Give the backbone structure.
Amino acid sequence: MTIARLWDGLAALVYPRRAVCMGCRSQAGFAQDWLCDDCRRLMAKLWLGAQPAPEVPGIAGAAFAYRYNGPVKGMVRQLKYRGTYRLADAMAADMARAYRSLLPTGATMIVAVPMHPRRQRRRGFNHAGLLAEKTAALTGLDCSNALSRTRYTTQQARLSREARLGNMRGAFACDESVRGRRVVLVDDVCTTGATASACVEALRQAGAAAVYLLCYARAEPPGQDRK
Ligand SMILES: [Zn+2]
């Protein structure tokens, strides 16, 4: 038995495909990977694709696989907080499909929203980086680590849009590898656009010719309108 086969066997034990739906945690069992039939139907209704994103100034276009709701939340949380890495394949396939709705972009490079090294050590991996890598492989774009965090920022989840913008301003640095290139910025979820906006600013300052935004999901900020 090869190492890969052995690994697949072990993974099947750890992630039993028929046991729990990643969307709703139902244990009813289902025929396909990760999602029960109900969640799969719901996901189809949440599909977005190319969308205007005025909350992220300076971008050439944006696409989101899904609205951040129901089973989509389940998928993101499973990847992000429970480290179910194998979900990233299915999520990246949806992101690649969303990206195709933006074509032609002329883009040659994918750049992930980076995580601060301290947080990445704690969580074990950067989920946005994983999605970026897999989406790059599916779309034929180069995957780059051009962006980095210049400082540790507090968790954004409970902050207002204004607070998030302040929290993120100047939090990213970008290397010269993006100069003259059209790049696709990748994140898991876009809520107020504060993180993406700060990344776009860093990319543009480093000379990126154009920046597109590609996220797995787009959330409505709680209790407030986008601006
Ligand atoms: Zn389900």
